[in-house]
């Protein structure tokens, strides 16, 4: 009588080989994933579709287009592959900006659809940043990115506790601010334009939590008023 345990082991081994084989490309290298999300920071009445090598990213996220001030969730792309990413008018299908990028294995990225300035002749552009997603259970971590191309000056960032002060221009970003006392009012963050110190926006400490990694996207309205949004990376 044949031993059923042998057949069980053979079945498990065959299944494992099948799974491994399905994760290997024809050239013998292992396929892995990267994660990407997209932010539309260009002020426009028309939403944008974003394509990866002519494939609409909505196939992974269920979103058909991003309007001004909107962003997608992270979606998965095959890593270590060259991509041409372009933004197209959701009505006409015309592309007005593109970027070539190779997304690294196991990494997370944000793509910003933005402009260098507010001139009507300036074409939009796509900028790619790598995101930190590894949490620290003892603190919140926050990165600030200035995409406010309509703003009249740089942006100053401080906290109520007086432990942090940074000024960044358009297209610039900060190192991650690490906040351990997220449960106190001292962690509240203030943002204001350098040339308009009397007008201050704030991000309450109540919106922060230990173990979370955040990105604050600084933007501007069509009239140059400061605005921002806090987005979690994890």
Automatic annotation (TrEMBL):
<dbReference type="Pfam" id="PF14344">
    <property type="entry name" value="DUF4397"/>
</dbReference>
<feature type="domain" description="DUF4397">
    <location>
        <begin position="34"/>
        <end position="148"/>
    </location>
</feature>
<dbReference type="InterPro" id="IPR025510">
    <property type="entry name" value="DUF4397"/>
</dbReference>
<protein>
    <submittedName>
        <fullName>DUF4397 domain-containing protein</fullName>
    </submittedName>
</protein>
């Amino acid at each position: 009588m044949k031993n059923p345990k042998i057949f069980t082991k053979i079945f498990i081994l065959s299944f494992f080989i099948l799974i491994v084989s399905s994760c290997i490309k024809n050239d013998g290298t292992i396929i892995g994933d990267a994660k990407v999300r997209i932010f539309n920071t260009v002020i426009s009445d028309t939403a944008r579709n974003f394509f990866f090598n002519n494939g609409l990213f909505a196939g992974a996220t269920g979103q058909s287009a991003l309007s001004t001030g909107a962003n997608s969730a992270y979606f998965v792309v095959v890593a270590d592959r060259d991509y041409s990413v372009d933004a197209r008018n959701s009505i006409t299908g015309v592309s007005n900006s593109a970027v070539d990028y190779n997304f690294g294995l196991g990494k997370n990225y944000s793509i910003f659809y933005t402009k260098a300035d507010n001139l009507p002749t300036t074409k939009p552009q796509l900028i790619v940043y790598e995101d930190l997603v590894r949490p620290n259970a003892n603190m919140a971590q926050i990165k600030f990115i200035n995409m406010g191309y309509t703003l009249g000056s740089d942006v100053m960032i401080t906290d109520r506790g007086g432990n942090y002060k940074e000024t960044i221009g358009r297209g610039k970003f900060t190192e991650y601010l690490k906040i351990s006392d997220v449960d106190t009012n001292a962690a509240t963050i203030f943002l204001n334009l350098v040339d308009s110190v009397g007008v201050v926006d704030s991000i309450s400490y109540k919106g922060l939590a230990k173990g979370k990694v955040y990105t604050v996207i600084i933007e501007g309205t069509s009239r140059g008023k400061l605005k921002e949004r806090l987005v979690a990376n994890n």
